Amino acid sequence: MTVTTKSALSGLFDETLWSTINSFYIAEAWLLDDRKLREWLDLFTEEMVYYMPRRRNVNRKELDREIPARGTDLPYFEDSRKLMEVRIQRLESGTAWAEEPPSRTRHLVGNLLIESVEDDGTVRAKTAFICHRSHGETATALYSGYRQDVLHPVDGSWKISDRTVVLDANVILDKNLAIFF
Description:
Structural class: alpha+beta
């Protein structure tokens, strides 16, 4: 299998692909912020993985340990599609008391970098995000970080098979983490 690396710095930048995927991410953010979680989940493949590792504070010499590799630490999330469906069902049921009333979110997604494109059209992409969360009368939180996705072309659009969400903070001070990134 041949993997061609394309980035803005390499001179091989594919503006059409970048624009298509950027539009996909903008639409995805609106689905999250409009609380259309079922439609959002439909953007993922059946075999999807939604992974959020716990980031560590490490010395400069140990930066390779800052984000633990899968299977080496207990992550915040390592959900399959079935687990994501359960999480969404629970949110919709009104029994997720910490999310009643539901949070309001605003996802700003940018800095799209297409890391690679494989022969079968599979794309590895990285985006930065800021997510503002407002809950109840006074609770607010601001999350920032980045996402690494594996995207597959399906019927003229894209499906995410693997998402890794890395927060910039290593300690979450919010009451719960019942939103998606």
